[in-house]
Amino acid sequence: MRIAVTGVAVALPGASGPEALLLPARPGAEPVDPAAVIGKKGLRFKDRATRLGLHLAHAALTDAGLLAAGGPAAAGDRLATVVSSNLGNTDTVCRAVETIAKESTGGLSPMDTPNASSNIIASETAIRFGLRGPNLTVCNGRGSGLDAVRWAALMLRSGRADHVLVTGVEPDNEVTRRLVDGPVADGGAAVVLSRDTGRARALLGPVFRTADPAGTAARLALLAPGGDLWLRADGGPAPASARLLGLTGWGELSGALGVVQCAAAAGWFAEGHDGPAYAVAGAAGAVLLHPERTP
Amino acid sequence: MNYPIIGAGAVSSIGGDPDAIFASLCEGRSGLAPLRAFDRSRFNAQRLFEIDDRETEGVDEPGRATRFLVEAVRQAVEDAGLPEDLAGIPVLVGTGLRELRSLELWWRDGVPFEADGLHFEDALRSRFGAVDTHTFAGACSASLYALALAWDLLAAGEAETVVVAGCDVVTESMFGQADRVQFDPPPSVRPFDKDRRGTILGEGAAAVVLSRSAGSRPARGLLRSVAVNCDAHHQTAPDAAGVEAAVRQAHEQAGVTPPEIDLVVMHGTGTPLNDRTEAAVTAEVFDAPGPALTGIKSLTGHTSGSAGLLSLVVALSCLDSGTVPHVAGLSDPLPEGAGLRLVAGEPLVGPVRLAQVNSFGFGGVNAVAVVGGAA
């Protein structure tokens, strides 16, 4: 079965589309403002990661032609959601424990209750856009974004869904900065993966994990020779003939990295390149192919 | 299609392995106890179903979810007769709250911690040499969701054997948020009772080994299907339509009809809304008299993301022993349960060939499994 990337969205400071990922990050760019894209309605009490996730979902589903006025443009029970975020609700959790220590549970806001659960982004996305298929949250470290893509592809192959919205998103705040010891990207990307379809921005090749990034990189080149784009942030090498894109200019992408890499590959193909693109995130790896090249 | 479950493991507040947990359930032994490590002056509710494992009484420590996970996986792998080296075997972990308790201790008390400690990769690699490890944070149905993905891995031929686990400890933030909205905390968990007053969190872990072929020892059971979906309706209120769709999909995928199901291990949290919805859906799907219905949360508490797999491990014991533990604390069934065969008062003895396991979570994430006896 061919699995196609049929929708792409990017939301990072100064980067609102896949092509922008191929350029250096603009220093001092304004933070992403989800309300400007999806309106303020329903965003009150949502944490930053969830707002960014809803923004990305709206843009990616629209790009894939899956959003109609008032609901999804396909059967809701065939639309699945996978979200990758490691740091998403850590600020809610840390603020809660601080408030309890200072004031007891009386000082907590009841509106924060859903945000204490790590699947808040995925479930809010499903509720807002009527996505009634499987709803999965992957919190799996550096490789999490590519892992999310892998599980989405598996659910398409096993017939659990016809389209899967995969969102990778992380918020920048005091807690997440301290956790990763530096700035966090405050945004991410989303892609829609679909079973065989006419219009595609990219095709998905093998997605897997090995014991380490070097092993993953070696296997990628073996599985789909001739890659002209290497997406890797781990400092690992790429052949001189290929473009190496670290995507490190926005801060730590963490769980968003793998999905942002897939979006960047779509941007690469849109610019006319046609060799395979390789993504390495943690020990996870993925091959992305030009839509007119058969995998 | 079905896949043998060739090993099982579990830990909870009422027992350190599946047999001990099953014995406690049949004897009605509860794990509910006064708060073991949280500052009691900060909460209205004063009791939880915690596992009593902390080194110093009253002093919390990081890494407990990981500890329970590793123990459940160790048991399951041993039970399956596999070596402890899991280098070639995917390990899928469903959890509601990951290592967020360790994060809390880091933020508040300065206990060392880093972002990679939020998930379970490092622990599973150092203990079992596992490389293909995955942490799914899907609220209370997370571990059955992980089981569904394990099914897909086997069906696609991407793995011969998969370890699936669930684990959770109570976080102060989740307990605190629940405490904030429960002005009158329930004294106990009473699933499907008309006087039920809410749920109480618990701690636990469970693991199974799922394989494409039978192992060297008799299988614990055969997994027939796992269906997963999402209500896409409300954060905290379950939706009967979504729940019923998941149940019917599980039956369809397993190729079974409702009358063939002998037992349902219900999600049964003891909250007014969950139990009402779940009972109504069960009455809708099954014609009277229907299957025996039980649930474990009155004695284990609501163990969050590990709950679904813990229920499944209990279902395996029911299949094996022909005994169904009763729903402790259930004396007068709720109106929606009239006519349902809720097991109350004492365990029910009789053959169980096919069991359904329900697991529903925050955000309307539903998972339903069908499991049969190995014989």
From TrEMBL, chain A:
Q: Which UniProt keywords apply?
A: Transferase
- Choose one Gene Ontology CC annotation of this protein and give it: cytosol
**Key word Transcription regulation present:** no
GO BP field: fatty acid biosynthetic process
| Beta-ketoacyl synthase-like N-terminal domain span | 38-170
Which Pfam family, any one of them, does this sequence belong to? ketoacyl-synt
Q: Which GO terms describe its molecular function?
A: 3-oxoacyl-[acyl-carrier-protein] synthase activity
Transferase as UniProt keyword? yes
What is this protein called in UniProt?
Answer: 3-oxoacyl-ACP synthase I
TrEMBL record, chain B:
Indicate the segments forming the Ketosynthase family 3 (KS3) domain, all copies: 1-373
Which organism encodes this protein? Streptomyces griseus subsp. griseus (strain JCM 4626 / CBS 651.72 / NBRC 13350 / KCC S-0626 / ISP 5235)
Could you tell me what this protein is called? 3-oxoacyl-ACP synthase II
UniProt entry keywords in alphabetical sequence: Transferase
Gene3D superfamilies from the entry?
Answer: 3.40.47.10
Q: In the UniProt record, does the keyword Cell division occur?
A: no
The record's section on SUPFAM superfamilies has: Thiolase-like (SSF53901)
> What GO molecular function annotation could you give as one example from this UniProt entry?
3-oxoacyl-[acyl-carrier-protein] synthase activity
Q: Which family does it belong to?
A: Belongs to the thiolase-like superfamily. Beta-ketoacyl-ACP synthases family.
Q: Does the keyword Transferase apply?
A: yes
An example GO BP is:
fatty acid biosynthetic process
- Please provide an example of a Pfam family that matches this protein in its UniProt record: Ketoacyl-synt_C
